[in-house]
Amino acid sequence: MTDASAITDPAAAQEQADEDRDARGSRGGWVRYMLIKAGGAAVSTIMVIVLGFFAFRILPGDPAKSITSGRQVTPAQLRVIRHQYGLDQSILVQFWKYLTDMLRGNLGTSYVYHEPVTQLIGERVGPTLLLTGTSALLSLVLGLWLGQKAAWKRDTPFDRLHTGTALVFWSVPTFWLGLMLIFVFSGTLHWFPSGGMVTVDGPTGGFALVLDVAKHMVLPVLSMTAVSYAQYLVIMRSSLLEELNADYLLVARAKGLREDDVRRHHAIPNALLPTITMIFLTLGGLIGGAVTVETVFSWPGLGYLTYQALSAPDFPVLQGTFVVFSEIVIVMNFLSEGVYRIIDPRLR
């Protein structure tokens, strides 16, 4: 059906056609952009898989001796174990088996736990996501809220106090902060448990179990949040400071809007754009960075599993957790590129 207005007004029809063409071009450009980024993510994944095999082969230690730790074995028995796990084969043969198993979704069998690595990762990923997800949410809310407050009250005692405190925590090693928290709140005050996820012989279900897990989470979550929230605070503060003298804020004030409305509805949405990439990348890196926190607090997640595998060395577990951690970062980076291009019209 022909639009009557288009017939009577050729200029309007041409303008509408131009808008439709621009919209199609924008969508096509976004698809091409994401396909390029997907290709880059695929290349990164291949490099991670290759590196995941060779990087751990340079670690000192004999996996066969780790498997038989605490038992007296003869050299002949060690040779049998090496043959059983394929450790007596050449590196190229082991690498080919690793690649073919990876394509089938098989990450191998743990030398230490004697269980499939996929099963071990599946059991440990829940506690890691619980710990890092809680920490990420608290870091994000606290960092963005304090960042916008510090920018709006720049050069005041509030700004100097919170920015300085955040930078101090950001420079502190996570494991050291965790040890200090254990010393103070567990060893001295006895307020919280020093490690683990649940109390031994504690509650097995219901609200009592939830409360027990929450009590065990306090110190590790506090360690991760204190170190990571500064990134959001600093970026949010600097982004908002760049927006404060923008013309559209002067127009909003001239319309008679309150200062809080100018900040919340105009300045903050634009200042949030540069933080999108940081949020996604930090979420990916936070899971990988949980190794130290989970080790300090004996939290039964992927990080603690990786630490135990390093002690062996347990090659299949190390390869599996390395690929999982790296893939999370790659996926988060890919998502950040797509989301940023959607919410920022200048990139379209």
Mean pLDDT over the residues: 80
N to C succession of SSEs: HHHHHHHHHHHHHHH
Under CATH, the topology of the domain at 116-347 is which? MetI-like fold
Strand content: under 5%
Reported CATH architecture of the domain at 116-347: Orthogonal Bundle
Number of helices: 15
Report how far apart the termini are: 31 Å
- The Cα radius of gyration reads 27 Å
What characteristic shape results from the CA principal axes? globular
State the name of the first-level CATH class of the domain at 116-347: Mainly Alpha
Structural category: mainly alpha
- Describe the largest sheet: none
Quantity of strands, as a count: 0
Residue windows where pLDDT falls under 50 for at least 5 positions: 1-7
CATH superfamily of the domain at 116-347: MetI-like
Helix content: over 70%
Q: What does this entry show, briefly?
A:
By secondary structure, the chain is mainly alpha-helical. It has a domain at 116-347: MetI-like fold, CATH 1.10.3720.10. It is 76% helix and 0% strand.
Give an overview in words.
By secondary structure, the chain is mainly alpha-helical. It has a domain at 116-347: MetI-like fold (Orthogonal Bundle). It has 15 helices and no strands. α8 (174-188) crosses α9 (206-243). The longest helix is centred in the N-terminal third of the chain and has 45 residues, at 10-54.
